[in-house]
## 1
Amino acid sequence: MSVARQILGCSAIAVSLGCYKYVPASLETTPVGSHVRALLSTEGQESLRQRLNLDTREVTGQLLELRGDSVLLTVRSERADDNLGVGALYQRVDFPRSHLLRIDQRQVDVASTVGLIALAAGGVALIVIQASSGAGPGLVLPPDGGPDDRKARGWIFRIPLPIFRE
């Protein structure tokens, strides 16, 4: 695999794995279109079980609409089809406000995201250093089978890692 593909792959993974957290919010302050997690009351759980055959205490989805006493959310459920296999199915479900005990809004966790990006950047740097050092499967050992003098020049260079070679 080329270095450019490795760097591109690491960057894509780092960007797609943005770290999120859910923070308590109220329906009045949560904008329509936000990703939310809702804690359901016992009545809400029973209603969801009857309507979608889902047995869960929490639902995550997108807040689509607030209408008087009802809240419209997308709810993810699994579908099983003989022809299509198993997959996610997103359905619009309206809940009375009394069935929602708590709403949490999804927000980007800046500290975790920065840490993830730093980790990905470190991985990319190691790939670039390893690729530019010439170390790899084509490395030829000395013909007499003795020690490699590149590793014997100082104590730090005795560590057999390709990033510490001169």
## 2
Amino acid sequence: MKYLATIVLMIGLLFPLGAKDPTPNDVTVAVAAITDTTICAVAAFLNTPSFQLPGTNFYFRNNETLPSVLSFDNADIGTFLPLFMARKSNSSNFLTSLLDAAKGPLNDIAIQYLTVHAWEEGHALLKGAAVTGWGDGMTLASLMGTVVTTGKIPPITITVDVNVKGRRVSTPVRVEGEFMLHSDDEGYFEVQPVALKINGKEAEV
């Protein structure tokens, strides 16, 4: 009986009584926050030298150079933009731009997403984890080699279970799902949802 009471208490803490369903806007914001934060974290990892964003951490399997899990611990996406801007050259020189791209192949994309979505501190805080799939036999060296020679990001799958809260959502949102990050045939970077659950309910993608 004592064990059952403990379980009920834990469930009550996770899902407070009276918690309202997220609005369509809440869902849009939460999904964007997760995909943008994941892109930024991968961009930071691929930067030369690599750096870590506040509230994020990568975990590696033995003898692997690409991370298998990305964790979020109250990661605030609104704090990321200055970190990327500090690594961007002020010069508009074409050669400098190429060098910047070689040092950080996803940095400009991360800056674009952060700017377009106008994230501010406290807008969205993430807690949870994402499992990364880089493709069979892919290593950090081969990934960077592909990016440099083709200018494209090969497919990266991200399977997430993340809670989003903050000033830009009216209620906390739990997002479970799978996303594909890659460059399309024309070289444009895109994020495609493959499967999605919102607060435990299946959602259309």
## 3
Amino acid sequence: MTRRCCQFLLALCIASSSAFADDHQHSLIVVRSAPVIQRLAVRVIHPTDVVVAASGDTLVADKVGKMVFRVDAVDETSILGKELDGLVRVADSRSFGVHALLRDDGKGQIVRLLETGFREDVCELSFEPAGLGVDAIGNIWTANPKTGDVILLDSTGTQQKAIRLQGIPTDIAVDGLGAVVLLRSGEIVSVSADGSWLRVGYVPAAASRLKLTPDHSVVALVTDGDGQSMLVRPTTNRESVDRFAMVTRGTSAFAFDRLGNLTLANPELPAITRVTSHFTVPCPHCGQQVPMLFSTHAPALKTPTRRSF
């Protein structure tokens, strides 16, 4: 974010907060505004996956370029891995780093991308895997679409468990308890390391990708019959659709940062786009970070009678 933008946000924060000046509460500040949309400078050919790492870096998997890019907080781009034939997914673990999922000709491979620019082969898979997730302690999750098995491996790539589901897995997201799995039918289930599973709900059967928000809510990417892309939440009824957000036509993957902002991958443009509506700004009195939301549904800002936080 530029210095001018930060100054603008701080001015809005000060102007919007007179209602709680007396007791100095740090409430969410909602500002009537469209989100800030920024196209990242990274040059991609066919982005197939995107992740916002715990560090704040954006990781981009380019299927045709066979590379994984990293875009840091100041939008500097570097290459984490290249010559990754069959690249389909990228995942990040705070302790174990960046992993990539490769698949080709009925088989798959998981590799770990090292800071030195080299890669470490974690494991070979005898099937074409669907989805990739790596948790904080290095457990790796993927799935076999042919058998319906959700596969749990340790950080060395040794298989620990296979949990069979009644459906065809298409994508996986990892949370603190295990994995959340999207089935081709649109059913979403939560799977634990002990082998138990629980139905989360349903999204349209056309759903292709799955992510978790910072508060661990489930969101899926769907493209309807007209080619329009949208993000949806699971519902208890197969016939219902709970729309989370509309996204650019052609979106292939998406990710959330720690505040809940979206990053979108689109091979049709081709582009990686950041959509920012959640901010934090420092309180001028105590320095604590105050949450701020840009929303087109917020009431218009009124001129404050006094300047105070």
## 4
Amino acid sequence: MQRREFLRSAAVVGGVAALGGCSFLNNAPPPRRSNAIASVEPQDGTLRIEPADSPWIESRKDAAAPTVAGLLAPLSPVGSARAAKGGGGGGRGATGRGTGGFASAPRTSKGRAWWHGGDYADDWRENHEDEVERYRATVAAIGVAFLGSDDRFEDDRPGAGEVPWDEVYQDPEQAKTYEISREGWYRVGANMVAADGSTDFGWESVDMEIDRTAGGDFVVDEKWKVSPRL
């Protein structure tokens, strides 16, 4: 009798876990936070890209780089995410670039939808706060790529990181412009390195869907912050 009761209880717990997305079984870290790209907006048929004035990045790397204390920029995203599948790489939080997840995604302090973001990120950080540092960094390069039409992007949505860039700007210090040739999805990436060049932190990206208005102007329909997981 006791064994039957135990099995019945275990089944109930398992069912609840399945309905809840197995939250206690999924310990994947959230995307890292960063300050890399201040703004990227359509302007006169181009994308105008401005790197951040004081770039920084979260990492679990043991880097010989200055850390950041007393950040002025808000770190907590605005809003909360409903769990969603798809969007490249799977995982928890709002992942659905191009699948309707934009409306329910949490927002970063710059108003971008947060890829794989969600309330779980704060819980993960509380459990791993000793492992994460926020380093001062430099934007060593900016890359821009056309990822494809909306239909193509639905079938092949790249995850975080570097992609084959159509244009790369080395050592960017001022705003850059990239000519927009067509509607569809674009990625703007920033290669983040330690100020002394000793550590390469990889790429932070902004993915955006660009449409054309009836008057012929380009506008952004969706904009996502896409970062590797910590």
